[in-house]
Amino acid sequence: QVQLVESGGGLVQAGGSLRLSCAASGRTFASYAMGWFRQAPMKAREFVAAISWGGTNTYYADSVKGRFTISSDNAKNTVFLQMNSLKPEDTAVYYCAARPEYYANTLYLKVRDYDIWGQGTQVTVSS
Fold this sequence. Notes:
This protein is mainly β. It has no helices and eleven strands.
């Protein structure tokens, strides 16, 4: 079983950037589809971005498209979320998630699609 640990969160001013990392340990990382989600206070957890384990397919929520970039380094068992042009509404706890996947190009967009979750990292964007 894979264990996930997020890092890179923090406090940033609007317009700034942060890079989140999700380090995986345990079984082979390369056969897991990965996703980033976020949860703001009093709101449901929502999809942010996803990447297939082959790295060829990515997908973004409309709210972050053009500002966030998901990427992976299978050799380092790490997935990243580069967040640029941050807005106060991006404030949330960010979680990475993993799901075992056979096909290299498949990705998943829903919370219920994922089996494994990290503990989350707080991102706060001040106005």
